[in-house]
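User: I'm writing a short methods note and want a consistent example. For D,D-heptose 1,7-bisphosphate phosphatase, I'll paste the sequence; you return only the structure tokens, no commentary, since I'll be parsing the reply automatically.
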Amino acid sequence: MSRLDTAEPEPPSAPRPAEAPTATPRPAAFLDRDGTLNVEVGYAHRPDQISWIDGAVAAIRRLNRAGWWVIVITNQAGVAYGYYDEETVRALHRWMTADLAARGARVDAFYYCPHHATRGLGRYRVACDCRKPGPGLLRQAMADFPVDPARSFILGDKPSDGAAGHALGIAGHLYRGGDLDTLVSRLMAESGA
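Assistant:
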């Protein structure tokens, strides 16, 4: 399980973001990356492969303005398969952070799983708790940030995304296309936050 804070480009073991989490729990939007925030291209690992889903940047800005944590939770089996390394994932997340900042939006942290239980190579061939549908990445994010799980949600393009949230009492929702901002606005209203 790995984490990258977006306040400063640091290694996964870095301390919390510069905007330190407060003691008061806040709702969080746990967002899948590929197929939810950016168009799915199959093992995206370079900036030229990133095209934001319609409404994705606006949705993140909406969440930021409302005081929600915005946390990306992503499986990155491409690392396990040897297609690219973990530094490549972190570099892409730093680029995404900068691109979003230029558009007035902020992701508070990226968490990714580089493992695969059956097809992983070497040390990445691990049956882990952090690969969705396992809840490990969300559990770690909730240890790092004061999250109110009852008012939070996870949104992704696969049933495994929602299953990760359900394991921790977080509402899971499936993104099936369309304007992401419209969907996030509705989910925020339904959360009661």
